[in-house]
Amino acid sequence: MHTDVRVRFAPSPTGLLHIGGLRTALYNYLFAKHHKGSFVLRIEDTDRARYVEEAETDILESLAWAGMHPDEGPAIMSQAPRVSDAEATGGEPKKVSRVEYESGDNNATHSPTGSYGPYHQSERKERYLDYAKQLLDQGHAYYAFDTVDEIEDMRKRLQTPDNPTPKYDPVTRSGMRNSLTLPEEEVRQLLEQGVEYVIRLKVPADETVRFEDMIRGSVAFDTSGLDDQVLVKADGMPTYHLANVVDDHEMAITHVIRGEEWLSSAPKHILLYQYLDWQPPVMAHLPLIMSPSGGKLSKRKAEKEGIPVNVKDYRQLHYERDAVINFLALLGWSPGEDRETMTLEQMEEEFSLDRVGKSGAIFDYDKLTWFNEHYMRQRPDEELARELSVMILEEGFMPQLTNSQKAMVHDLQFMSGMVGLLKERVSRLPEILEAGSFFFNRPETYDAKAVKKGWKENTPEMVKTYHDRIWDLESDAFKADKLKQILTEVIEEQGVGFGKLMMPLRIAVTGTGSGPDLFGTMELLGREEITARLKTAIENIA
């Protein structure tokens, strides 16, 4: 079985890819790779009324960003600019894809194909209609000519406290306008006249549908709780239920791994497999992703709690890809030990559905932040510096740059030094630009609390002494160790504590009373810039 494993990720392009959708894709991907199988991407775009054109591009780019390249499916190509080595050091820019940047893959264009296509459901309409006709001929489906108003009247008429929303089901269908209640001749005439209709599944009354779920074990549904699902809509397009069953069969899908919200639809799908005389795939319904405050992590709840809900949000906020993937993998699955940080390759080796839990997994945003800090700090300073340059030069994180600021951004050595000083102090890469704004801009104001605490009557004299000592240094001697040594000499001469000069110097250099290593910061900014800042502080701080 394992050598023939085929799974699919089948999103609907009705909006941006939800972070929960990426987890579903990840579990499918890991299962396929663990069993040396195939990971298929299928675009379920039959709901044309809700179709969003840019949504499909977002799905493709999100998967590419996550490093989950399908073995079969539509072509994937994500072109977004980044800064090349040449540009980062002042040369001409070279545009390459963000996929290449994030994955380190120099061949960033992935165009998977397969013998089971097309992989857009909108291109497979005739296949679904053929099977709908087969179900009609076998008596497992029927035409329904009811208008929206007629269905609404039925629901109002049959509504009771015990049944507040009556369904179109084996009980109510006997009182509706369909091919089960109308004379055969009338049905024929209605079809010839082009009267609008839908095709519904004829759910059997008072039966039990059972199947084995890889996560939940034996699952059973009473058909009395099912509605006669619409299989083909009035516009001639299939619903998800028919199209998904047909495609999974024709694409030889062996395992359907999807969210718990689809569990209630599973018995309808099992019935379709039975009626079409097909072997159903093995099913596994993943636990819900829960909000920290309880309940499913809906868009509304996520926004209320400050949690980004779409994958695009994480990309735009520059979360570390490995952090997001690692976090999502553990959102319902456990490798069976205390280890938390894992590469995608390690997950592929160890992933199994028998370690996926049944109960909902809470989206712990603080834990994601911890993962992001870990993976960001593991990356080389130079690599982070290049990405930071992209954010500044291409994405507008620092608008209206002066020529001198542009020169700093193009200086890879300077940017790498700034990253090295600040990356232990932030949770996401863009935060370096805020935490390190003083690298690009001389302080124009000074933090009042820091000044009150650290700038005393004799401070200007001490700062002036320090200024004069470091001004005499040669540029190649302007190093952190030497700068610290000189500070030690000055405070010993003055007979004061280390903080009496350290704090004023920090205020003068950064405008605040806290920040990264002061002497490393001074070395990076250089003698001319530091002495100018000290002189300005002496003149302006009362």
Q: How is the secondary structure organized here?
A:
Blueprint: E1 6-9, H1 19-34, E2 38-41, H2 53-66, H3 85-88, H4 98-103, H5 125-138, E3 141-144, H6 148-158, H7 184-192, E4 198-201, E5 208-213, E6 217-222, E7 230-232, H8 240-250, E8 255-259, H9 266-275, E9 282-286, E10 289-290, H10 299-304, H11 311-316, H12 321-329, H13 344-350, E11 361-362, H14 365-378, H15 381-393, H16 403-410, H17 412-422, H18 431-435, H19 437-440, H20 448-454, H21 459-471, H22 480-494, H23 499-510, H24 518-525, H25 527-540
Parallel strand pairs: 1-2, 8-9, 10-11
Antiparallel strand pairs: 3-4, 4-7, 5-6
Helix/strand/pairing category:
mainly alpha
Please report the number of helical segments. 25
Task: Calculate the mean pLDDT score and round it.
Answer: 91
Q: How many beta-strand runs?
A: 11
Which parts are unreliable, with pLDDT below 50 for 5 consecutive residues or more? Answer: 76-111
Summary?
This protein has helices spanning 19-34, 53-66, 85-88, 98-103, 125-138, 148-158, 184-192, 240-250, 266-275, 299-304, 311-316, 321-329, 344-350, 365-378, 381-393, 403-410, 412-422, 431-435, 437-440, 448-454, 459-471, 480-494, 499-510, 518-525, 527-540, and strands at 6-9, 38-41, 141-144, 198-201, 208-213, 217-222, 230-232, 255-259, 282-286, 289-290, 361-362.
